[in-house]
Amino acid sequence: MERERSGMLRRHLPSLSFVAVLTTLVAIGAAVFIYLGVYDVAADQPHTRPVFALLETLRDRSITVRARGIKPPPDLDAPERVRIGAGLYGEMCSGCHLGPGVEQSEMSQGLYPRAPELAKAEHTHDPAEAFWTIKHGVKLSAMPAWGKTHSDPLIWDMVAFVRKLPGMTPEQYKSLVASAPADHDEMMKDMPGMK
To answer: Where in this chain does the record put each Cytochrome c domain (predicted)?
Structure first.
């Protein structure tokens, strides 16, 4: 009986040669697709829905998995962190991610995919995921890896500010950015490799 089942199972499974031929054909098809430039990568032409959904899921799952185990500092809501983060955000992030009362820039209008407007409540993120994203950036999205030039404490300051953005009025936003304890260059003067 066991032999009969095993024999039936083998008859229903494709042979190794069939799998090898199929794999080779798929690889050749993919190579031709890529070489001929069939897929339009222009930033002014949106991805197809399936491709966009696949890339969005890939990005979100990648960030979630890599952010596991990152622990926010206990003083993440400290006003000083938020003020420092406001100054960094105003200089480095607002051109793409905008802010309350900030008009779209030429750069923000030309990005695809568009940078999320972090002042909108639907873009709130887990602090660990926000930290990972700011530190490491995201390929093919124009999101730079700020961890190459900014220390972890400064990145946590940006996270602290970004968490406060949703619901902030334009006046509160301007006030916080203006209240930053130092300008960007002053904050960066002691960073390795910065002049």
So the answer is: 80-166
10-27 burial, b at 16+ Cβ within 10 Å, e below that, comes to: eeeeeeeeeeeeeeeeee
Q: Is residue 193 part of a domain?
A: no
Element (H, E) at 37: none
Close Cβ partners of 152 (under 8 Å, ≥ 6 residues apart): 135
- How far apart CA 105 and CA 181 sit, in angstroms, is 26
Within a domain: residue 40?
A: no
Residue 195 covered by a domain:
no
Q: Which domain holds residue 67?
A: 49-188
The two three-digit tokens of residue 139, written as one number: 């390929």
Residues 62 and 94 in one domain: yes
To 10 degrees, what angle do helices 49-67 and 127-136 make? 110
Structural domain total, the chain: 2
What is the value of pTM for the model shown?
Answer: 0.80
Contact 143, 133 (CB under 8 A): yes
